[in-house]
Amino acid sequence: MDLQLSIGMANNPRTRAIFEGRVKPDGIELICTELHASELFWRQLRFGDFDISEMSLSALLMMAAGGDDRWVGIPVFTTRRMFQVGTLVRKDRGIDKPADLVGKKLGVPEYQQTAALWTRGFLQHEYGVHPRDIEFWMERNADHSQGAAMGFKPPKDVKLFYIPNTTNLGEMLVEGKLDGALRYLAGTDNLVDRSTLDLYHHPDFKTLFPDPHAEGVRFYKKTGIYPINHGMIIKREIVDKHPWTVLNIFKAFEKANELAEKARLEAIGYHLETGLLSPAAGKALATPLIRHGIAANRKVLETAALYSFEQGLTPRLMKLEELFAPSVMEQ
């Protein structure tokens, strides 16, 4: 069986073996396309271009809650990151701590995207800053918006405005029309994002947290949560006709992950032998953080579902059984 696959980060060591053909799902020949995730998600949600693809976790929650049953989730989690500690702010706005964001204007590529979902939940639960306390400006327009493809409407208590097509998020930040960005994407080669300015090295901007790494460490030690950004989906019509495809695909991504983990452990071993790493550091680095499946990620997934419900993106608290194929729920 030939299936079209698209992943936003083909060079990700966790998925590279799939793209290079070193790992193949049994009984399936994958025809691979690499796309930036911003464009990929819009194309999937709007046109259903690919049989299997990476997908925003927030979008998967919203689709399932909205009755869009074209897709079935597979618990393969291709990207994870502490996005919530990377909020960008202008230095001249007196923003030195999360509480200072109250009443400010923050840009975001797309309001309901997963990175923004995690960041808003983080600000609310860790620092008491609620989404209704901030004025949001969204860059992506209706023609190229994931949200528009899903029929997204802003929650009633949220102040959300749209950046005109004549400008972009980066330009509005530099011109001082916005106080910061909850999430900023620039220089991306895709059909969706418009900003091009590098603001992370711009003299007028700083991150909300002076030491984002330390804040990420604090959050992880407190909660044990390493946020999941993207998962995988497959067309339901394929699963209905060929149920075996789900576990075969899951097993292939597990194998690719194992190969990446083996290479990582070998590199750690080399550093230990030369004394460039202490045994304690080597032990910490040997702890696997990127794991697929429901069992290893239930807390993270349920937290994302809670944030989505709290923020009005989903009308009820979604259960994981509503997102993923039954055959992988115990994986």
Provide structural commentary:
The chain has 331 residues and is an alpha/beta fold. The protein has two domains: 2-81 and 227-328, D-Maltodextrin-Binding Protein, domain 2; 83-223, Periplasmic binding protein-like II (D-Maltodextrin-Binding Protein, domain 2), CATH 3.40.190.10. It has eleven helices and eleven strands. The protein has helices at 16-19, 37-47, 57-65, 114-127, 146-150, 169-174, 212-223, 236-241, 245-274, 279-285, 298-310; strands at residues 2-7, 29-34, 52-56, 71-80, 88-90, 105-108, 135-138, 159-162, 180-181, 205-207, 228-235. Helix 5 links the parallel strand 7 (135-138) and strand 8 (159-162). The longest helix has 30 residues, at 245-274. The two termini are 24 Å apart. The model has no long low-confidence stretch (mean pLDDT 93).
